[in-house]
Specification:
Length: 434
């Protein structure tokens, strides 16, 4: 775990002194300078807003090469996992570090099934939310509330870790479906021991006692693929939130709830909802592609090409390629014609040949096409980021566990440079100018 290779030193010259810091390399040749003593040596801190150049940890979980558009979970390329595995196999891989054999997968699936119900008292919580409450608000509240129903487990015992992981992975799906049913005033649907992970989710979402809901294998396959695409992405905003909250010793449920809240933002996981809202606006207002591109480039215009750009990928997001193909396959197989897909494809073509986007290396990211596929499955737009959260959960759990076992780690507490008022005296209120 965490094998790095010392490959030399880097020197910093400051105030007539030279300081030397070790440089180390990871398994894929990425290098870092270890500057844990910088402030103590020099009195300086490193200022890096957004942490674009700052490593928070050493991790064995996911590798991304943003320049080459490479993404691997525990060494397996994302396209292979998306095509050859189920989401539950990938969840097991991320948490345990290896793909399950048949008996491990059977045990894990049975555990997920056994843990798919929520406490009956929790179901009452849903009744008190306004029907237009955003499902991400409900999900984060319900996940942290799990810590009230399930006693603090001894997370140093293997089987208790498996129990908590299975409980979270299984119940997040039940909670998500319940929030949808509640929002449309429909009866809650219980999970079934006869269905697989994704089949159960779809059934809890769409089964009603008065309509014969058929689980469509094409939709099951496509949703497995989309969940795999979202399963992890190294130190993104929400995973960093999970790690930061976990670093204080907060329990897994509380840390995951923080990750759900971070994911909700439109610059992060909320982008999949924002993409559809953007495409619907373009379609509704009859905006031309040229107008969209011009507005996206105009700094004075709040219009942004949602689903485009990425902090790490400066080439095509490999997940976007897979999501686009899955989208086309699902729509073709289900015989759905969606004008929003036509608009998205035209936007992509235009942007990829426009100097502004080319110069800034702005390509479609994972969120650009996923929403159109989810829409074709009948999943409402405000549930898109919930689907992202279900997908990302195994990654969040894997990072929380990895950080907890990492001897290098301690409570996260960045520094700052203060620029506020210097020391001053209080003036009595009667002497303060009106
Ligand atoms: C996810 O980190 C992860 O791994 C995240 C994620 C994961 O799996 O966890 O991959 C999931 O969050 C994907 C990203 C989803 N967000 C969006 O699609 C929202 C739209 N994209 C942007 O807001 C933006 O690209 C970010 C937030 C994704 C990245 O922001 P950065 O790295 O801070 O880049 P930036 O804002 O500094 O942009 C650099 C330049 C700027 O122009 P200049 O100041 O240089 O003139 O590119 C421009 C930006 O204005 N730009 C865009 C743009 N994105 C960046 N211009 C128009 N449309 C866009 N979408």
């Amino acid at each position: 775990m965490h094998e790095v290779k010392e490959v030399g030193t880097a020197e910093l010259k400051y105030a007539d002194k030279t300081y030397s810091y070790p440089v180390f390399e990871g398994s894929e040749g990425e290098r870092a300078i270890r500057m844990g003593s910088l402030r103590q040596d020099t009195g300086l801190i490193n200022y890096d807003p957004g942490y674009g150049n700052t490593g928070s940890c050493i991790s064995d979980i996911t590798f991304i090469d943003g320049e080459k558009g490479i993404l691997r979970y525990r060494g397996y390329p994302i396209d292979v996992l998306a095509n050859d595995c189920t989401f539950i196999e990938v969840a097991y891989l991320l948490v345990h570090g290896h793909l399950p054999n048949q008996s491990q997968l059977t045990h894990f699936s049975r555990l997920l099934n056994r843990k798919s119900l929520i406490h009956e008292d929790m179901r009452n919580f849903f009744k008190n939310y306004p029907e237009d409450a955003h499902p991400m608000a409900i999900l984060s509240a319900m996940v942290v509330s799990l810590s009230s129903f399930y006693r603090e487990l001894n997370m140093s015992v293997e089987e208790e870790i498996d129990l908590t992981v299975a409980r979270l992975l299984s119940k997040i799906r039940t909670l998500a479906a319940l929030s949808y049913k509640q929002s449309i005033g429909a009866p809650h649907v219980y999970p079934s021991s006869k269905l697989t992970y994704v089949e159960n989710f779809l059934n809890m979402m769409f089964y009603t006692p008065v309509a014969n809901y058929e689980i469509d294998p094409i939709t099951v396959r496509a949703l497995n693929k989309l969940l795999i695409l979202h399963a992890d992405h190294e130190q993104n905003c929400s995973t960093s939130a999970v790690r930061l909250v976990g670093s204080s010793g907060a329990n897994l449920y509380a840390s995951i709830s923080a990750g759900i809240c971070a994911l909700w933002g439109p610059l992060h996981g909320g982008a999949n909802q924002a993409v559809i809202e953007m495409l619907e606006q373009i379609h509704r207002e009859g905006m031309t592609i040229d107008t969209c591109i011009a507005r996206a480039k105009d700094k004075d215009d709040p219009f942004r090409l949602m689903g485009f750009g990425h902090r790490v990928y400066k080439s095509y997001d490999p997940r976007a390629k897979i999501a686009k193909k899955a989208c086309e396959d699902v729509l073709n197989t289900l015989g759905i014609k969606d004008e929003l897909l036509d608009i998205a494809v035209q936007l992509e073509e235009r942007a990829l040949s426009d100097e502004y986007f080319v110069e800034r290396k702005l390509y479609p990211n994972v969120d650009f096409y996923t929403g159109i596929t989810l829409r074709a499955m009948g999943i409402p737009t405000n549930m898109f980021t919930v689907i992202f959260a279900i997908g990302r959960l195994p990654g969040w759990i894997a990072h929380w566990l990895e950080q907890r076992d990492d001897k290098d780690q301690r409570i996260g507490r960045p520094r700052q440079i203060y620029t506020g008022p210097v020391k001053r005296e209080i003036v009595p209120i009667e002497d303060r100018p009106e």
